Amino acid sequence: MKINNQRIQLQNIKKKFGNDNVLNSVNLTVNSGEIVGLIGPSGSGKSTTIKILLGMEKADEGEALILEKRMPNRKLLADIGYMAQSDALYESMTARENLRFFGYMKDVAKKELPKEIEYVAEVVDLTNYLDKKVSGYSGGMKRRLSLAIALLAKPKIIILDEPTVGIDPALRLKIWKELAKLRDEGRSILVTTHVMSEAELTDRVALLFEGKIIAFDKPKKLEDEYKVNNIEEVFLKVEGE
Ligand SMILES: Nc1ncnc2c1ncn2[C@@H]1O[C@H](COP(=O)(O)OP(=O)(O)OP(=O)(O)O)[C@@H](O)[C@H]1O
């Protein structure tokens, strides 16, 4: 029997908006117990890739699968923690009320919920602000709350679109450490970023440029292959070829 370790699969994804080829044969996989980074400059197609994966946009060609199923699929909702690029929060409610609401949506058992909320709030350093209304939150705090919501219910699949934008370096590091821990527990994490230094923290990194994956491998392997010291230099080198 073939054991499929690939929890996320994007095969030959093509997408046009009008006459613009936004994605051109994108192939990407995320295994269990793996953090994959999708990295590329603004407008390279990162969010579009994620939206196609989640069934929020339709690909013109190709196949996008999560746990071998095409999205949207209601049955998979509790298995997926998704953090979008823009926050979708209830501003008139407190952070705790937001977390409670999304916890119910994800079918977290009522008696588990307080513990879950405590854990995700701790990861993003919001423990002391849980009872404050979201309307009074700063932009960075809203990002952190969105990330906390994505981590609720310990989903098998975690998909984060630019999770660390507006988050200061110390907390950024803490969040990456937590992602590594979740990875070690067997979860599959796909994270987009345009911060090249964050690529070093992933297990495999896909470099997206003008809708094409121009390289996809372990960061260290890419650096060795291109004889450079970091992913930014790999990017510049591949891009120049
Ligand atoms: N709904 C849409 N209609 C038309 N064009 C779109 C639409 N969504 C995205 N695009 C275009 O597709 C391209 C890729 O956008 P996308 O948001 O996927 O890039 P990105 O890599 O996520 O960028 P950023 O880091 O700035 O968010 C851009 O040129 C964008 O203008």
Automatic annotation (TrEMBL):
Transmembrane segments: none annotated. One of its GO terms (molecular function) is ATP binding. CDD domains: ABC_subfamily_A. Coiled coil: none annotated. Gene3D superfamilies: P-loop containing nucleotide triphosphate hydrolases. The keyword Cytoplasm does not apply. PANTHER family: ABC TRANSPORTER G FAMILY MEMBER 20 ISOFORM X1 (PTHR43038:SF3), ATP-BINDING CASSETTE, SUB-FAMILY H, MEMBER 1 (PTHR43038). This is ABC transporter ATP-binding protein. The lineage of its organism: Bacteria, Bacillati, Bacillota, Bacilli, Lactobacillales.
